[in-house]
Amino acid sequence: MGIQERKEREKERRRQQIMVAARRVFSKNGFNRATMEDIAKEAELSPGTLYLYFKNKDELYVSLSLRILQYLLIRLEHVKNKSLKPEESLVALQEAMFDVYDFDPMILINLFHLQSSVTLKSISPELLSQIKSLSQRSFSIIAYIMAKNIKYGSFIDQHPMAVANIYWSLFSGVILWETSKKIINNNDKDYLKKTLKKAFEIFNRGILK
Amino acid sequence: MGIQERKEREKERRRQQIMVAARRVFSKNGFNRATMEDIAKEAELSPGTLYLYFKNKDELYVSLSLRILQYLLIRLEHVKNKSLKPEESLVALQEAMFDVYDFDPMILINLFHLQSSVTLKSISPELLSQIKSLSQRSFSIIAYIMAKNIKYGSFIDQHPMAVANIYWSLFSGVILWETSKKIINNNDKDYLKKTLKKAFEIFNRGILK
Amino acid sequence: MGIQERKEREKERRRQQIMVAARRVFSKNGFNRATMEDIAKEAELSPGTLYLYFKNKDELYVSLSLRILQYLLIRLEHVKNKSLKPEESLVALQEAMFDVYDFDPMILINLFHLQSSVTLKSISPELLSQIKSLSQRSFSIIAYIMAKNIKYGSFIDQHPMAVANIYWSLFSGVILWETSKKIINNNDKDYLKKTLKKAFEIFNRGILK
Amino acid sequence: MGIQERKEREKERRRQQIMVAARRVFSKNGFNRATMEDIAKEAELSPGTLYLYFKNKDELYVSLSLRILQYLLIRLEHVKNKSLKPEESLVALQEAMFDVYDFDPMILINLFHLQSSVTLKSISPELLSQIKSLSQRSFSIIAYIMAKNIKYGSFIDQHPMAVANIYWSLFSGVILWETSKKIINNNDKDYLKKTLKKAFEIFNRGILK
DNA sequence: CATGAATGAGAGTTCATTCAT
DNA sequence: GATGAATGAACTCTCATTCAT
User: Fold this and answer.
1) Model pTM?
2) Most CB contacts within 10 A, which of B13, B154, B158, D142?
3) Nearest Cβ partner of D162 from C158, C162, C195?
């Protein structure tokens, strides 16, 4: 059974190896200009091998997002499980969001772009449902935190889900826009975190009673 | 010279005709799956003709964004030129944003996606600089309105440009995220405008002194 | 309209040009080992061009059979339309079969092989129904001739359709088998026509009252 | 030496196991769409193992035909060895042919298709010569039976080999054509045996003095 | 100006075959 | 002998782009 286990581990490592390569190639060339052969070369594997681990290019691409969604969920569950006071949980939430961004900025941006993309049509139902499930579970935790704050009277009375949506929108909006600016202006200076912090400040002031 | 003019006008009309067709095809199939032949057919022209008006597929795509950027600028200038009280100008700004969304939601979303994309690399410098110029001019108007409110003491003291960025991020973030949700969940119900309104409310509460 | 016509003609000529090339390549390498690139090269065209005239490789392959089926039908109709005495029509039928073989032996053999192949699954329904229709119409003429002979008392009493089937089976069987022998034995001597003639003689003796 | 033998037997059994699986997969998917992996799975072996018993896919395919050719020869020798009267041997021959068809219809059809195919080029000379040898030996028995009938004056005077060829052609022709019809027309009703019987009847009437 | 047939590079993907274990 | 992960050549097919008419 040790052999079985070792094989499992090796298989998983291979998957990771491919995903690491894919990450690099996708982030350099974008989805369209990245070819499976590029990725194979980057992973020091043959093109055929990629298809032993991923059904097709789309699935490989989407799988990258899966990792960050998993991290997001874990991070949010961690926040939820600590029994914090409402306002404390808001701070913890904010920290979680920063962590998620730091975990893999490029992939997070991919995820934001993915959502409204056509790519979703050609991936396997299993993968799609995994994504949906992870998203929804994460999202309901954010809503839960918002609800707690509303219930305890520290937040204005709004539908928690709506507030969660706005929170997430602000998060993704700032990240996308600050990244865009950087690219368009060939700018090295990165205001992202500063802006994100300010954005959350304004949000908090706006939502507090 | 009348002839010259008429030719100009006709040429411009042709361009519009193509862009209208492109818009339809891109929005139906997405950028990748939309072929130049599809667009040509939709425009009742031949593929070759498209290349008399646009350097390549990318330029045609990006040109669509140009239109909405132009509209955005005009709309914002209109807000600026009316001599409104600070808080009034904020309301007017919000109205402008809604108008821009209504002007062409699909293309606006494209614009948001475009920003951090690789597409920008294959378009002509002229087109790129047009985009930059329009963006910046629009942006400085938003910043100007924010500055006015800060100066007149109704807003908390923050760098106007930062506030403008957050404002725009919130706008784009809500639109992208609400659209995403609709697609992922195969949902027909559209909460976008309602959520956008609430988002601006929170922003306003958060930014007001 | 002269232009229209000329274009039609040229388009048809192109199709023929491709089919001629395909015929050569398929007969040299067989279906599997023949690549679209080979055919394109043989036709002095680019691979892409082939797809302007044929949906895919299968369709191109099957289209070759269409020509001979069309010829078969024309030839059989010709036999039917001549008002011949029963026994004369049998002679005429035999001549028609020989003509069909001479028209394009290689493609005729393809047709025989095609029938029980899996290829039929990936061709367009239109093409398939064309093939079916041509086959059936041809076949009913053979049956019609057999029926005439039976009715006039020169043939033994058998179901005309069954007799037609046996006739066609004998025809295709002899052609396939004689061709096979030639290939297997690397034989240049061609007994096909002689054998076919004898086969029909035996058939005739066997069917005559 | 018992060990040697047992190993031989086991090796042969393994070969059979693979051929049984191959038979199933080929008949389900056709030669092209059947993959070595499919066959391996069906045989509950790994792909690599297949290559320990067969040089390549073509050889595996052709080996299936070998079995039926062996059966054909045995069956024909059996007919020959019984000292039958000429006309009786003709009946026995017919029975043998039906038995061969029943032995494995699908593989028999494969064999008919194989004959004029390009596949033969990529198999080993040994296998090819085995096929040739079996075919020829079978064939000469058919010719022998025909010769006997001619010699004894019950058959018209024709070259026995030619008659044998026509006999075999009729047999294969009917089988191929009836199978084709079934496939093309999605027909479940199977007229094969009935038609084959009639075909032999006509042949017999045609060949008898 | 407009056409649209032709191009041909290049994509994703498959799968017979190999070989280290 | 058996495995099965890895290979990589080769395939079909697409489509942005060109250019003779």
Assistant:
1) 0.86
2) D142
3) C195
